[in-house]
Amino acid sequence: xxxxxxxxxxxxxxxxxxxxxxxxxxxxxxxxxxxxxxxxxxxxxxxxxxxxxxxxxxxxxxxxxxxxxxxxxxxxxxxxxxxxxxxxxxxxxxxxxxxxxxxxxxxxxxxxxxxxxxxxxxxxxxxxxxxxxxxxxxxxxxxxxxxxxxxxxxxxxxxxxxxxxxxxxxxxxxxxxxxxxxxxxxxxxxxxxxxxxxxxxxxxxxxxxxxxxxxxxxxxxxxxxxxxxxxxx
Length: 233
Fold this sequence. Notes:
The protein is an alpha/beta fold. The protein has a single domain, classed as Uracil-DNA Glycosylase, subunit E. Helix content is 37%, strand content 12%. A 6-stranded mixed sheet has the order 1-3-2-4-6-5. The longest helix has 17 residues, at 132-148. It is globular. The model has no long low-confidence stretch (mean pLDDT 95).
């Protein structure tokens, strides 16, 4: 896809929302919006690509996998309206990046301070498994966000898929990177020029229900992000 020409985050969000580059993802996100989950049968689904959101002066960007079919694909905001988001925003609230611990709708009053949230892939994928090709198709959006967030100093990659996407986006943006990429693991920290990449397990139910990722573990990542980024101001 062409590199986005947007000159600000709001214009980029509009550009993301209109994307139809991946036929499989377009078909799935729109199918889900008609075959709704029973709990949301009266709601109108977003059913479009989900742009990033947050503080334009952010020192931290959090990169997830992709919108959930009945979460971001329903609400139109990444990590909003699903269990992963419940876990993530509770941690961001505890560590001072969010003004409230929940995110249920785009107009619920949530505000991020010093933090911006995006995803490796902007459309909900079948079985929550985007392909590497779909990740690569979305890469220019993440590259552009990295360029537009001029104060950025830290990146939290939620899961190995997001870590791969972050690394590729930084390389495409001609950012300084180590000669060899460290293997993904929770708590892995990589210095990349002026940025520090911090790795965390994804706050999926598979990880949080089994205790693979605990609230204390995720809080520690965001607390470390604040240290390496020099704070949120």
